[in-house]
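Title: Prediction job returns without error message
Component: structure pipeline
Severity: low
Priority: P3
Assignee: unassigned

Description:
Job completed but the reporter wants confirmation the result is attached to the right record. Sequence as submitted:
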Amino acid sequence: MTVPGRRSSTFSRLLRHGFTDPSGAERLLDLPELTALRDDSVLLDALGATADPDLALRGLVRLVEAQPDEERQTLTSTLLSAKPFRDRLLGVLGASEALADHLARHPRDWQALVTYEAVDLNPGVAEFEQGLAEATDPVSLRVAYRRCLLAIAARDVCGTAEVAQTAAELADLATATLRAALAIARAAAPADAAHCRLAVIAMGKCGGHELNYVSDVDVIFVAEPVDGADEGKAMQAATRLASHLMRICSETTVEGTIWPVDANLRPEGRNGPLVRTLSSHLAYYQRWAKTWEFQALLKARAVAGDPELGGEYIDAVSPLVWQAAERENFVPDVQKMRRRVVDNIPAAQVDRELKLGPGGLRDVEFAVQLLQLVHGRGDATLHSGKTLDALKALAAGGYVGRADAAQLDEAYRFLRAMEHRIQLYRLRRTHLVPEGETDLRRLGRSLGLRTDPVAELNKEWKRHASVVRRLHEKLFYRPLLDAVAQLTPGESRLSSKAAGQRLEALGYADPAAALRHLEALASGVTRKAAIQRTLLPVLLGWFADSADPDAGLLGFRKVSDALGKTPWYLRLLRDEGAAAENLARVLSAGRLAPDLLLRAPEAVAILGDPEGLKPRGRDHLEQEILAAVGRADGAEQAVAAARGVRRRELFRTAAADLIGSYGTEDSPRELDPGALVDRVGLALTDLNAATISGAVRAAVREGWGDTLPTRFAVIGMGRFGGHELGYGSDADVLFVHEPREGVDEQEAARAANQIVTEIRRLLQVPTADPPLLIDADLRPEGKRGPMVRTLKSYAAYYHRWSLAWEAQALLRAETMAGDRELGKQFIELIDPLRYPAEGLGEDAVREIRRLKARMETERLPRGADPTLHTKLGRGGLSDVEWTVQLFQMQHGWAEPGLRTTRTREALAAAHSAGLVATEEAETLDEAWLLATRVRNAVMLVRGRPGDTFPSDGRELAAVGRYLGYGPGRVGEMVDDYRRITRRARAVVEDLFYGA
């Protein structure tokens, strides 16, 4: 008798055996149906050994209650006397609510778990076919299928079969099920069956002998007419049979469904015919198939229907699989495939995604399949559809390090076991790790984690996912280092040929040169070589993720040669995780940034500083440059110091732009192109203004000491004045001076002209640093006019002679260097000219339109595609800027917001003032940003300016990557550019030309 207020001994025992609801378990054990079992300690021990004792007990009660009276005694006695049966039955009941439901509906099916012969431990297709033999319709097929599934699940949860064997048994059961379904379909349509030979080819996990409990079964159907039959009619008959087979397996009945049969891996996917002849399949694969389709064919296996035809299909497509690496588009296809597709996973589920998430099953499977495609053309030992068998063969052949393969094997088995147990619970197709405490506890216990199941499960899961994530890239590149520098004694090495094939498959255009660079970087016993050997597997992956891996690797070697003996450099790359990835992105994205870096490699330190990529403001830059000028001996040394600062800041700006455009593992790419463009334009404008200020100070000090005989100012024009400079932009300027009190005007003019000549010379002296080109062609009278004028001279010219285009050009005028007060006076002088009172007259508007139309016809370079020229082409920079500037000149006098030198600010002000509709403003802004980014990209990629897309394929791909287009999407990029600028041109026609 239990004393009130105290727990019964049974309650305590139930707690010790892992029950989470011991009170409920006590009530169940007291049911009359369990009288024969209640007091048996062996039963309690067996329940406690299951994944979920509460679930197992509830399932057992339901099973016993469902038994006919004459069977109940047999079940209970067998349960008590036969340990293998007891472990198998309770193991299934404690792991799968769905199979407990099946046993409650079909109470005699427990007998499928009683036999324990040798063949029951390793069943194959024949045994499963025997188990399904009596099924004659979809309902009976489902019942028989789950009866067979009971035995597989029992071996799985009891540990009799390890995870790979369970997956193979599930694939064999699927094979037997497809055969049974085809037999049912044939029996229902004997005439169709008589007209054709139909073979079912398993793909995906079923074809690879590694199926889940609940998964789509991927198939391809191939058919041929029987002798004498019409091919068209035979294909129709085969299609009906195939469709019926799919419905038999997929449709929901009173017994539920089995699994969906998915034929979307067939040629042309769901748009193609369901069934094709063998010759039609081959014609498609030889002419149209993409790389991923050959990757899918790695796992193709004939499983049902006409065995001879199935064998012919496999024999015909297998050679094509192993030739895929020689296809023209293999490299860009591989680059696309290597970028894991997680975009479609809801953000809230990424961390719970077992298959597609970071460090998930797909990472292992993809890595193994890619290496099979690359090396299987010359090594038949790699021709396996099973992931783990292929991984073992890759290690044996030296294509993967043995230690790496062993770790991946362990991680893959654990993740697959998790996937199996998650799906087994309710027999639902899912790859999400559950969130509930009860579900996690059951999952952990089912994997043998009993002390603290939830904590241990999370720890083990994260550990294995981390291994996969770390080795996913290393898997490709570590053996390349072994090929050039024997790193691991006794390890099989990649041959030079195999290493070259792998590099070629990963996008390296010159594998031989790449191997030489690797050898130079990784060989030796120095600390530098050791650190680089650690870094290179990851760096090579980042290089391969770019449009020009060769350039990235070569650049890294050059930087390493320059800085390799510098302790801080090696420490930076080893300890600053972001620094190494940032360096890889910068070195492989084009020529400009690496050229800037290699002129002064110590700037690599910028990449490791969290604040290093942020642009320095003009005040900060001027202070640094003027201090350097003050310390220098002579003007040339002073301006050399200023240009050195400019080169460093150019690199900072370009690096930040590239990293923001590409993104890194820790920092996603910037999605707002406006933010990127504005940041670059402002940084370059501040930098050039500060550099010119330094040059002015140096020239004045060299010739006149502290004070010039005349006040002198530099006015920024064009993109310089508009804070919209690109990497390839000149600095458009006007020079203005005003003689100091008591100074002769001629002497002042002479001094001003000497200053202009000297700063232009100093900023263009050939050195290791890029020149800053000063362009004063927008001055009054253009190239024929004096280089520098007084305020009075400017006023006289503009009052009497200025043309409409000159007033328009002055919209961008802003003081950049020199005497600020003089610059302010100049701006006050030109404001009435650029923002005329009451706006422009009809004649002036007509003249501006005429000039624009003339420029479009005369200044576009011969042979240039007007739909792709970023400056003068349709909907390009000129179109947008002239439209905005026309609004500024017409309405700037009345709308203060239009009085700005910046195109985007003026466009936004025109929209706010109701002059431009929202959609039109967005269209113009989008086109202007895109054209600006294309120009910046061309300069970054080629190292020299250009106004149109590069013709070289690799350079074009690099421009695409900068703009956010992945591998193989350059056509889409060009189409998008044409579409966006075509829409902008339509707006320009309406707003500018008044069409």
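Comment from assignee: result matches the submitted record. The chain has a mean pLDDT of 90.
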